[in-house]
Every structure is written in C-alpha cells, then in structure tokens.
Amino acid sequence: MKRKLVFATNNAHKLEEISSILGDKVELLSLKDICCTTDIPETADTLEGNAMLKAEYIHEHYGLDCFADDTGLEVEALNGAPGVYSARYGGGEGHNSEANMQKLLQNMQGVNNRKAQFRTAICLIMDGKKHLFEGIVKGEITKEKRGNSGFGYDPIFMPEGYNKTFAEMGNETKNKISHRALAVEKLCRFLKA
C-alpha cells in the first residue's frame, strides 16, 4: 500500500514539480486535498524554520504525516539576500515573481560578482519524528531574464555547468538538477530506506 503524505503547499508549480520527482512512490496530498485553507505563517528567520513551522502546523491540526519546504535564492554579493524573504522580496501582497526579479536585477546592476545559490529545506514529520533535508544548486544571476518555463526566479538563475537559465532548460531538465530535486531525492531515499 502506498504511503500517504501531505505536502504542505498551495503552490501548484511546486506540487507538480515534487509529484513528478516522487513518481508513484507515495500518494501526495496537497493542503487543498485535506481541506486546509489556512495561510500558514512563515515567520521564522531561516528556511529550515519556515519548513518546520508549516509541517508542525499540519501535523498538529490534522494528525497526518507531512512535509513542507521553504526555498530561498541566496546571492553572495547581497550577503545572502533575498534568502528567506525570496517570495516577498519585491514587496507588496503575495508572491510577485516579476517584482522580485526586477528588484533583484536592479540591486545587481553594476555588480560583477553574480554568484548565487538556490537552497531548499524540507522538514518531514513522519511517525511523530522530524527529519530535515537540504538541496543546494550553485549558479549565478544573469543580467536579464531568459526563458519562459519554470517559475519564481528561474528566468534569471543559471546553474553552474550550464549555459541556460532554469527557465530556458525546461521542467524536465530542471526537475533533475534543481535544489528542490536534490532535497526531494534525499527525502525519497529516506522514505525508501
């Protein structure tokens, strides 16, 4: 029998990405599937902390095995910013990818050091125990947006060893090498062990 796991997200892009990485190993449920309409606060000052807050909320209120993630883009020249504030970097309400990218590109004008990394932290709560997994992809910030696939900062992030941004390489390739893929791979290995 397949293990049921709640992925504490309402982000359809993330759900689709993680579903394709996990394949048919587990039955993945979203917050919508368990009728959770609460906007779970992400008030921690680390990615791990936010992932933990979301997973703990689901486990406490629904009693289900679950995992949550938080991802940040960490730019070396900006002392790790936007980091934990990546989704809200551009200001305003909600997650505005366009505003986030514009602000980042503006802050990077005239900056030669374009090194950056995407980092995903996953907190799994299973059988009452907490487990943390991390995935990191190093790369750089391009000077302009390139490509149409993916989401978030994908059009301006070029992973090391590639000459395409995440948004140019398409989801199939991105899902094999992304920070989220690396963290989910560790999660999968753990679930299979």
What does this structure look like?
The mean pLDDT is 91. α1 (12-22) crosses α5 (179-192) and α4 (166-177) packs parallel to α5. The two termini are 16 Å apart. 33% of the residues lie in helices and 25% in strands. The protein has 193 residues and is of the alpha/beta class. It has helices at 12-22, 47-62, 97-107, 166-177, 179-192, and strands at residues 3-7, 26-29, 66-75, 82-83, 115-126, 129-141, 157-159. Strands 1, 2, 3, 4, 5, 6 and 7 form a 7-stranded mixed β-sheet that branches. It has 5 helices and 7 strands.
Order of helices and strands: EHEHEEHEEEHH
Provide the low-confidence segments as ranges: none
Q: Strand share of the residues?
A: 25-35%
Overall mean confidence score, pLDDT: 91
Number of strands: 7
Question: What does the largest sheet look like?
Answer: 7 strands, mixed
